[in-house]
Each structure stands twice: as C-alpha cells, then as structure tokens.
Amino acid sequence: MTRVLVVDDEPQIVRALELNLRARQYEVDSAGDGTTALRLAAERHPDVIVLDLGLPDMDGVDVLRGLRSWSRVPVLVLSARQSSDEKVQALDAGADDYVTKPFGMDELLARLRAAVRRTEPAAPDEEAEVVDAADFTVDLAAKRVHRQGRDVRLTPTEWHLLEVLVRNTGRLVSQKQLLQEVWGPSYGTESNYLRVYMAQLRRKLETDPAHPCHFITEPGMGYRFERRPQG
User: Which residues form the Response regulatory domain (predicted)?
Assistant: First the structure.
C-alpha cells in the first residue's frame, strides 16, 4: 500500500484527507507541525508527503529543505499562500507540486497519484528514453520528435526546453529553473522568453495550441509536461 504523510495544522483538512485517502486504500500518517513531520518522515518512510507551509513551529519551506538534505520523497505542497514568489520559493526548495487552498479533492488526489507514479522504476523497455505522449513521441537519446507520421523540426532552444520538461514529466518546473537550464545561470526573470518558446512548442506539437493538454501553464509558477491529457 502507498503510505502518505499529511502535514497540516488544520484538523478539518487533516481529517478530510485521511478519510479520502484511506477510502482509496492509502496508508496515512499525519503531523501538525514541522518537527513531528520530519520525525515521521524518517521513521515511517512515506511514499509521498502532502505539506502545508504555514506550520506553528517552523515554515514549511524549512521542512522541505530538511527533507531534501536526505530524501527525494515526492512532496506536494498544499498551502493558502498564493503569491508567485512564495510558490517559486517552495518549488526551488524541492517541492514537486503546489496546490493552493481552497482546493478540489479530486485534483489533489490526481496530482498525488502522479507524484507517486514518477517514483516508480522504469520498465526495461523504457530504457531507450522514448517518451510516448498521446499526440507525439520524444526520443531523448536521438533528440528527435515524431508527430503524425513525420519528424518535427525544432530549433536547438525549442529542443532544450522540451527536453527539460519531458525529463520532469508530470512535475511542475519553475520559470527560474527553466530559464537557467535552457538559457544559462545569469537568466532567471526573463519570463517573456518562456512564453514565446512555449507558444512555439504548442504550435508544433499540440493538437489545439489554444487549449494545450501536454504543455500546461501554472500561472505565476512555471510549466508542466503531461504525457496524456488530464481528466
């Protein structure tokens, strides 16, 4: 069974998550503060953590940094903080995803399942690094994209952006991380670059670029690549 650690100081949210997760056959531990969360993470070895940032004894970002000093367990932040700076700070500290309160339980559970799937070992036939999306395939080793029976021509920058997103399939990648990985360490705030190149990738690879289902924008935070349309 998948074990989830819920970290939140609001009892009603903890109860709601416990009920919904246990109804779906998850094992659940809970903590109301950061100190307890770090102890339980070390003792119980959860498969995924749902973490609130506003904890009574320490900031959730500090909990994240503590976890990341020894663990790569996926962490789904669940917080009322909605400013872009705070979201980016959590992502840069090691969060795998970010959901704002109030939240929809179905969306939260879907993102939690996606976080768990990303930790599962790849099957032997996936070692060739060919990523099969619903509308196209990406061959990471050969640096080729195939769509509707033919190769898609990408510029070097378009390919680099696509590669970073595909290697983080399902994970929210912050604007800062994308800019620094694609354009270099001196870049971090030129979000207009991302908008231009994401529009080009969508035009070349999405069936409906105006309503993308593979290259998802998380406003104020970054972008996420999904193999299959969300639903």
Answer: 3-116
Q: Which residues of the chain have pLDDT under 50?
A: 122-128, 231
Alpha-carbon distance of 16 to 231, in angstroms, equals: 22
| H helical segments located in 69-189 | 84-92, 105-117, 156-167, 175-182
Rounded CA gap, 60 and 21, in Å? 22
Q: In 28-83, which ranges are continuous DSSP H helix? A: 34-44, 60-68
Helix (H, G, I), strand (E, B) or coil at 196: helix
For 83-122, b where at least 16 C-beta lie within 10 A, e where not — what string? eeebbbbbbebbbbbbbeeeeeeeebeebbebbbeeeeee
Q: Rounded to 5 degrees, what are φ and ψ at 28? A: -130, 130
How far apart (Å, rounded) are the C-alpha atoms in residues 147 and 190? 30
60: helix, strand or coil: helix
The residue assigned the tokens 């320490």 is: 58
Query: What's the pLDDT at 230?
Result: 54
Give, in order, the Cα–Cα distances in Å from 193 to each of 3, 178, 187, 188, 201.
40, 10, 10, 10, 12
Task: Give the model confidence (pLDDT) of 100-142 as tens digits.
Answer: 888 889 889 988 887 787 666 544 444 448 899 988 999 988 8
Query: What are the structural domains, with CATH classification, of the chain?
Result: 3-117 (3.40.50.2300), 124-225 (1.10.10.10)
